[in-house]
């Protein structure tokens, strides 16, 4: 188709994702996915190894003068970029699975597969495409091409196509149905303007002579908006909404981002869906050498960001991406790699990495706010507070406890009901919890085994909740509260104070709790010591632990379990497991604005602690040259630290991609 303490925060992040969200967060979210993000997908590629012939990689060149010619793969292909996967086949289950992994990593929830009619190759691959999409937690809609031809096109073949697709594939779990619109399937109609509006109305108007409305084949029908007054024709035709598809900003009225506010206003006035299409760029000069006027450079990703910003500014119900893998027109977000032949040097994403556009899509998928606001509320008790989303408890904040004299979060659950921190108190009967360290490991906490020689980890000294400075309360769907904590020695002297501003956000990917903390002296300088038990800790649910459950530990450098993660510096360390056919877990993240990296005190029995203070303790006694360290905070100074916790539940077989979530944590923690 064409055209050192620099950051003022201790960040505690609970990103709790359900099966409908990124990658629902997972890309990101995710890996959860955002079902409101659709990507146009092309299942038309064939290669010699799988299919016995080339198709589309050998795309013909359209010339204005002379004879057209086709490229000869694998060195010469009909694209300005070269795919990182090589010249794959859309018939290959392995290649399809790799694409689903990439889409999940990007946070895309729905792929709009190009479809050219019954019996076409794009139809032959649909059963396998649906199966692989289901295995990875994705949904599929159909992007209907001009199956009736471009000359004298009629609506009737499209009616037959819809009946065929619903009858043949409509019961498949990956066949997308819009839950907000009576569970109807959604169809995109490319070049819908080729059919006269009154002909479309015979299918889409309630009283049309061949109407689909009110039948088992009724759907959400989305036409293409091209020219300035196409909106009126689309209303006359009976479409439920419109999309823009084209990747070149300014190529058509519909693809011009400056027109999107007016188009959204028209859609709102006529109760239609407006689905803007965003793209990373456009370059089809490899197959259309004369089409330089419609080229749009990627600008190192800036072009893509501008389109996303324009799309989100009009608050549409969905955003579509042109495209995941339309290589001929250079609109793909699929990874591309540098490649040069004796006669041609392919473009690539420099200065960005090959996976940049997957990661950037995940970034925008996370920022894409949910259509309906979600209520954040608090239930106050005498010494604790429940955090609720739409009335369901997601965590409990305890500020006063006779047994554990320091604040903590406990009994943190994912939206599917899976608890991801150990029961507090431990339940050795129902959940087979080990009851070791019930006071030291309540769920999620920040504690230090040595501040001025005082042990706040083993609760030989206390962190006293002094007061709520603000809240708790909710403003525009964000829950907020601010506390002041006082660190007191075992004889009652004040060692230091901490102010912590909490903000609890609901995102498309889950729940985000950010805490910004500052440690300051009160009666004189103080110092953090050098111990294992220092920093930000999590005790995972027993089922998620390595030793007592079916879990694994993994860090940002690929280390696995205690042997590969303990005592290692890393950006993050996660504990996760497959529970009842889905992933659940918790990832502890460190902020690069900390005064030094964190070593991880990670144990197979279920403990994960990010510790920036263990210079000697965490490197081991045999490390000759490393001395115990004291981190001093003088009067007038402030120590700032940053950590995050990402809690997720996700469908799909593949292990979640924590790296993309860490990137999103950094963005959210510094906003």
Which helices and strands appear, and what pairs or packs with what?
Elements: E1 34-41, H1 48-51, E2 60-61, E3 69-70, H2 93-105, E4 108-115, H3 121-124, H4 126-135, E5 139-144, H5 156-169, E6 177-178, E7 184-189, H6 197-204, E8 220-224, H7 230-237, E9 241-243, H8 260-269, E10 273-275, E11 277-278, H9 302-313, E12 319-321, H10 356-367, E13 376-380, E14 384-389, E15 392-398, E16 408-410, E17 444-448, E18 462-475, E19 478-488, E20 494-507, E21 510-521, E22 526-528, E23 534-539, E24 552-555, H11 561-565, E25 572-579, E26 582-590, E27 599-603, E28 607-611, E29 631-633, E30 643-650, H12 658-669
Parallel strand pairs: 1-4, 1-12, 4-5, 5-7, 7-8, 8-9, 9-10, 11-12
Antiparallel strand pairs: 2-3, 6-7, 13-14, 14-15, 15-16, 17-23, 18-19, 19-20, 20-21, 22-29, 23-28, 24-25, 25-26, 26-30, 27-28
Helix pairs in contact: 2-4, 6-7
Features:
671 residues; alpha/beta; 10-stranded mixed sheet; 4-stranded antiparallel sheet; 12 helices
């Amino acid at each position: 188709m064409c055209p050192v303490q620099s950051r003022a925060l201790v960040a505690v992040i609970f990103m709790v994702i359900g099966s409908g969200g990124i990658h629902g967060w997972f890309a990101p979210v995710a890996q959860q996915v955002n079902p409101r993000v659709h990507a146009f997908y092309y299942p038309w590629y064939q290669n010699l190894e799988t299919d016995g012939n080339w198709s589309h990689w050998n795309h013909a060149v359209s010339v204005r003068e002379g004879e057209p010619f086709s490229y000869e793969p694998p060195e010469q292909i009909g694209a300005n970029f070269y795919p990182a996967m090589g010249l794959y086949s859309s018939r290959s289950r392995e290649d399809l699975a790799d694409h689903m992994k990439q889409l999940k990593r990007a946070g895309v929830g729905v792929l709009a597969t190009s479809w050219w009619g019954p019996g076409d190759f794009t139809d032959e691959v649909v059963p396998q495409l649906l199966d692989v999409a289901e295995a990875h937690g994705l949904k599929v809609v159909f992007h209907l091409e001009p199956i009736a031809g471009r000359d004298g096109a009629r609506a009737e073949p499209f009616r037959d196509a819809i009946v065929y697709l619903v009858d043949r594939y409509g019961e498949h779990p990956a066949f997308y149905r819009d839950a907000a619109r009576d569970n109807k399937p959604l169809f995109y109609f490319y070049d819908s303007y080729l059919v006269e509006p009154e002909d479309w109305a015979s299918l889409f108007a309630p009283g049309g002579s061949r109407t689909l409305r009110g039948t088992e084949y009724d759907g959400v029908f989305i036409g293409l908006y091209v020219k300035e007054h196409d909106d009126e024709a689309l209303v006359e035709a009976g479409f439920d909404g419109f999309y823009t598809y084209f990747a070149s900003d300014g190529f058509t009225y519909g693809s011009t981002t400056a027109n999107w506010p007016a188009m959204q206003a028209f859609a709102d006035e006529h109760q239609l869906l407006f689905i803007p299409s965003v793209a990373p760029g456009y370059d089809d000069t490899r197959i259309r050498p004369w089409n330089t006027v419609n080229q749009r450079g990627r600008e190192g990703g800036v072009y893509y960001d501008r389109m996303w910003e324009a799309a989100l500014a009009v608050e549409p119900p969905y955003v579509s991406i042109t495209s995941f893998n339309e290589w001929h027109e250079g609109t793909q977000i699929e990874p591309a790699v540098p490649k040069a032949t004796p006669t041609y040097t392919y473009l690539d994403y420099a200065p960005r990495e090959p996976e940049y556009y997957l990661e950037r899509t995940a970034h925008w998928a996370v920022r894409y706010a949910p259509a309906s606001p979600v209520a954040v509320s608090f239930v106050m008790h005498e010494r604790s507070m429940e955090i609720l989303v739409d009335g369901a408890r997601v965590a409990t904040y305890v500020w006063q406890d006779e047994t554990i004299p320091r604040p903590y979060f406990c009994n943190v659950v994912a939206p599917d009901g899976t608890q991801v921190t150990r029961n507090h108190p431990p339940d050795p009967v129902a959940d087979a919890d080990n009851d070791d360290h019930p006071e030291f490991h309540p769920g999620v906490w920040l504690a230090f085994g040595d501040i001025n020689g005082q042990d706040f980890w083993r609760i030989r000294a206390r962190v006293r909740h002094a007061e709520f400075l603000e809240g708790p309360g909710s403003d525009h769907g964000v829950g907020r509260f601010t506390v002041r904590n006082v660190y007191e020695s075992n004889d009652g002297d004040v060692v230091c104070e901490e102010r912590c501003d909490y903000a609890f956000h609901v995102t498309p990917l889950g729940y985000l709790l950010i805490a910004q903390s500052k440690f300051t002296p009160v009666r004189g300088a103080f110092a953090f010591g050098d111990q294992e038990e220092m920093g930000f800790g999590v005790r995972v649910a027993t089922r998620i632990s390595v030793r007592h459950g079916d879990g694994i530990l993994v860090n940002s450098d690929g280390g696995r379990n205690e042997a590969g993660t303990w005592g290692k510096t890393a950006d993050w360390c996660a504990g996760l497991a497959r529970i009842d056919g889905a992933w659940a877990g918790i990832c502890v993240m460190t902020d690069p604005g900390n005064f030094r990296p964190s070593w991880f005190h990670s144990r197979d029995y279920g403990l994960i602690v990010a510790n920036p203070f263990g210079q000697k303790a965490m490197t081991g006694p045999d490390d000759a040259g490393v001395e115990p360290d004291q981190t001093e905070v003088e009067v007038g100074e402030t120590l700032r630290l940053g950590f995050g916790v990402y809690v997720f539940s996700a469908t799909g077989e593949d292990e979640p991609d924590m790296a993309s979530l860490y990137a999103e944590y950094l963005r959210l923690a510094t906003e």
